[in-house]
């Protein structure tokens, strides 16, 4: 199991950073959204920030928008962005030969302990990230559990005991759901092959059987390998 918390100390700045592992909030094809929490402390300040990392073929322009966390359909926490990093590069398109141009954006949003506590205590959390002209809405349950685990590990270990295990279970469940999308492609392709190939080789069923077998296996292996490569 991956380590949940990473702690570093910069002796030249007298700065301690405690960072939670990135939380994969949303993944659709080539678009990925990662959230994580950080606590930065020195002799002069003690800050907590939410980091958002966005990977996509197109720019979202996080720096031009904001982050809204809706608590129990009743209260909104509005946070403004500070750009950390942006870049553009190419990424090999899975098993495809063509490379895809990919953008990477990272922004952080200051949040105080009281607001973080509200997120942890929420019964329901919805998230909206706004860019230059786009909005991305997502269910915040995974981040709510993540925040509880971070609060327990970094701020007060008497709160939210067992939250890390709850977060891991939710993360595993969501990962299974994402995997199921690829599995449905593989199953659907194999079933389609079973329907079409016998029609193409109806005069030679022995050849049809061989072609059907190899087609089904090849399609299934392709989609499974494609999924594993893109994780």
Give a description of the structure:
By secondary structure, the chain is α+β, with helices and mostly antiparallel strands. The protein has two domains: 5-161; 175-230. It has four helices and eleven strands, in the order E-E-E-E-E-E-E-E-E-H-E-E-H-H-H. It has helices at 113-121, 141-155, 163-200, 205-230; strands at residues 5-10, 15-20, 23-28, 31-41, 46-56, 66-71, 75-79, 81-92, 99-111, 125-130, 135-139. The strands form two sheets. Strands 1, 2, 3, 4, 5, 8 and 9 form a seven-stranded antiparallel β-sheet that branches. The chain has a four-stranded antiparallel β-sheet with strand order 7-6-10-11, covered by helices on one side. Helix 3 packs antiparallel against helix 4 (205-230). The two termini are 17 Å apart. 20% of the residues are buried. Residues 93-97 have low confidence and may be disordered.
Summarize the topology.
Blueprint: E1 5-10, E2 15-20, E3 23-28, E4 31-41, E5 46-56, E6 66-71, E7 75-79, E8 81-92, E9 99-111, H1 113-121, E10 125-130, E11 135-139, H2 141-155, H3 163-200, H4 205-230
Antiparallel strand pairs: 1-2, 2-4, 3-4, 4-5, 5-9, 6-7, 6-10, 8-9, 10-11
Which key features would you list for this structure?
231 residues, alpha+beta, 2 domains, 7-stranded antiparallel β-sheet, 4-stranded antiparallel β-sheet, 4 helices, 11 strands, 38% strand, elongated
Count of distinct structural domains: 2
* Helix/sheet category: alpha+beta
Oligomer, anyone?
single chain
If you compute it from the alpha carbons, what radius of gyration comes out, rounded to the nearest whole angstrom?
23 Å
Question: How many distinct beta strands?
Answer: 11
What general outline do the C-alpha atoms trace?
elongated
Order of helices and strands: EEEEEEEEEHEEHHH
């Amino acid at each position: 199991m991956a380590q949940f918390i990473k702690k570093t100390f910069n002796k030249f700045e007298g700065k301690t950073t405690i960072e939670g592992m990135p939380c994969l909030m949303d993944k659709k094809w080539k678009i990925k959204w990662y959230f994580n929490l950080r606590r930065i402390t020195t002799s002069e300040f003690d800050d907590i920030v939410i980091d958002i990392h966005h990977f996509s073929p197109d720019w979202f322009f996080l720096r031009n928008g904001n982050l809204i966390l809706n608590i129990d359909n009743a209260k909104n926490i509005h946070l403004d962005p500070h750009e950390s990093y942006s870049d553009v590069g190419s990424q090999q398109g899975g098993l495809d030969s063509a490379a895809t141009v990919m953008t990477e954006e990272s922004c952080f949003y200051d949040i105080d302990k009281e607001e973080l506590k509200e997120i942890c205590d929420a019964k329901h959390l919805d998230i909206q990230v706004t860019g230059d002209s786009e909005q991305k809405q997502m269910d915040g349950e995974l981040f709510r559990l993540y925040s509880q685990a971070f609060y327990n590990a970094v701020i007060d270990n008497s709160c939210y005991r067992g939250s890390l295990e709850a977060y891991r279970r939710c993360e595993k469940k969501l990962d299974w759901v994402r995997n199921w999308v690829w599995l449905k492609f593989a199953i659907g392709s194999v079933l389609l092959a079973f329907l079409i190939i016998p029609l193409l080789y109806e005069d030679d069923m022995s050849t049809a059987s061989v072609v059907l077998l190899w087609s089904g296996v090849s399609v299934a292996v392709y989609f499974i390998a494609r999924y594993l490569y893109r994780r």
